Amino acid sequence: MTESDRELLLHLLALRTAGPLETGGGEPVELWEAQSAYAEAAGRLGFRVVHHAPAGPDTVTGSDVPRAVGQAADTMPGFLDCQPNMVLRLGPELPRAATVMFNVHMDTVAGGGPVSFSGSRFHGRGSIDAKGPAVGLLAGLRAALAASPALGTEVGVLIQLVAGEEGGAMGVFGTKPLVEQGYVGRLNVFCEPTGFRVLSRATASMTARLRVDGRDGIDDEPGAGHNATVLLGYLAQHLASELPPYAVDGQVCVAGMNTGSMHNKVYGTGQLLINLSYGSQDTGRKLEAALDDVLRTGVERFRERFADSPTFATTARDAARVTHLDWLKRGLPALYADDAWVGELLLERAGLAPWPAELPAFTCDAIWLAGVPDTSTVVFGPGDLGANQAHAEGEFADLADLDRYARHIERLLISFARNRLDQGN
Questions:
Q1: What pLDDT is stored for residue 424 in this prediction?
Q2: Separation in Å, CA 225 to CA 185, 220, 264, 293, 345
Q3: What is the extent of the structural domain holding 280?
Q4: How confident is the model at residue 78 (pLDDT cuts 50, 70, 90)?
Q5: Which of 282, 312, 329 is a domain's end point?
């Protein structure tokens, strides 16, 4: 990475690009500025802007749209307008078979420490997820262009710069509409931290909400009301014990629970969130059905356990009536590919390392390429979400890793170009 690359990354890190789902609204969102700054740098390599606009209102109304997204679009003025997407193209529009696409999200989670560069390490929100990889991508493109004249002439390159990856938006008003508009290639690379390993899978996730809608009580008569805290706490343990075996290619996350904060009250209402990831839509359907069954069993066991307790007998008797399950997010696709062409191109020709088969995949916007004809899709980037403290205080990216990523991108592009030229001959 050049000095200009480093300056660009520091500028991008300084811009506030956490979306309203992360901040709650009311704070500036500088995605327009971040994308424009990136486009200016990419323009020096020959890229031109072919799309720069927010998604339309129809993108936040479908059955696969997370409920939080639909609610935010309805209640937050300018929700979509402050979260645009950009597409850059190198060279003329070419057939899909001759095109490679890179996807990078410019939005971040909220928070993060101060922006800095020590000479070897960048700190700041988005440094590894995913503004750092975005700038490393540019450095790799610059090297590949110098080595392969076919890029931009016989081989096209697209870059998607998207919003709506973070905050639980799941790409529904970012990557998804761009894919539907045809901004894809034969090879599609999602620039997310994978430790320089090629991952051809991406899980999707669904979020269930357990609600208890009962009657409050006071501490002097705790048995007179419904104790949502005890009921939801019991069900949380039951789900944590019984549900994971059904998540054969994903994870079960028993997440946030809330009933109240006072010490002298019995809360009759509350909620528990469960996030379920899955590696195939078939697993997702089975996991959804399993949750219904496991929950029903849990409610029955709670009734049996506390039926004779003076304090909790009312809650036990009415547990089935006051407990409800609804879904805040479901119906999303999952990406799973066992693609021999990717293996030959990226692992054999480009010499990149594969993602270990025994490690689980993770959720990202690559899910929206599932089932798209004549495409292959991978997730590939520097760093590690956990080790580099993505989504946490102290997020960082090492310059050496971004330089290494640039070299890998160069090899990837040269291999794709040679493969395309070989097919043309």
A1: 63
A2: 59, 11, 13, 27, 64
A3: 204-329
A4: very high
A5: 329
